[in-house]
Design brief:
The chain is α+β, with helices and mostly antiparallel strands. The protein folds into two domains: 1-99, 2-Layer Sandwich (Alpha-Beta Plaits); 118-196, SH3 type barrels. The protein is 18% helix and 36% strand. The chain has a six-stranded antiparallel β-sheet, with helices on one face. Strand 11 and strand 12 (167-172) form a beta hairpin. The longest helix is centred in the middle third of the chain and has 16 residues, at 103-118. The radius of gyration is 17 Å and the shape is globular.
Length: 196
């Protein structure tokens, strides 16, 4: 287990937004438990990446253990050219590369996660949803963030999704902090591929 200081940054290189990265986005489906090691390798090669992670706390015996874990187990998003893609494959940490046909759509989805994580939102993995009310946050640190609202007995959650992977995460939010908006149009080819 890594010490907190040994974890890779969520975004490399540091930038105001992942939208500033140049190149094509790819999804690296990593070998088991290789997400952070791959991020470290990409840092050493100066290849841009986004590895959404979240804090998880669990008890082991009488100790409380806090770990920074990938939000989407087995996936890392990287941006680069063909040479950088080859360098990534040379790390021997990737089981499969997923080509992103709709670059703009993936960047838009990833930017939502980037914004939420930078704001310190405690995202948790969530079941991928096919339907729901699309909303925009109208106040607070998540201002402007859009996603699907899901209400249960005890709370309201804003669900953010990566359609290409059929993966999602959510954050608790006060219902008065959101307003309904029209959902962005998805190309027919953007149905979840669920490569696993």
């Amino acid at each position: 287990m890594l010490k907190i200081s040994e974890n890779p940054p969520l975004v490399w290189p540091q930038a105001e937004s992942i939208r500033q990265f140049n190149g094509l986005w790819w999804v690296a489906h990593t070998k088991s438990r290789n997400e952070k090691a791959l991020a470290h390798d990409l840092m050493a090669k100066n290849i841009s990446y986004f590895l959404p992670m979240t804090w998880r706390v669990h008890r082991h015996s009488e100790r409380t253990i806090k770990s920074l874990l990938p939000l989407f187990t087995g996936y890392l998003f990287f941006c680069g050219n063909d040479n950088e893609r080859v360098e990534l494959l040379k790390t021997n940490r990737v089981a499969n590369l997923i080509e992103v046909k709709n670059q703009e759509n993936l960047i838009h989805e990833l930017a939502r996660f980037d914004q939420a994580l930078r704001a310190g939102a405690p995202l948790t993995p969530h079941k991928y949803l096919n339907k729901g009310q699309w909303c925009r946050v109208i106040a607070g640190p998540l201002l402007g963030l859009e996603g699907i609202i899901l209400q249960t007995k005890g709370d309201t959650r804003l669900v953010l999704q990566i359609n290409l992977l059929g993966q999602a995460a959510s954050v608790e939010i006060d219902i008065v902090m959101v307003e309904p908006v029209e959902a962005p149009r998805q190309p027919a080819s953007q149905e979840p591929e669920n490569p696993r």
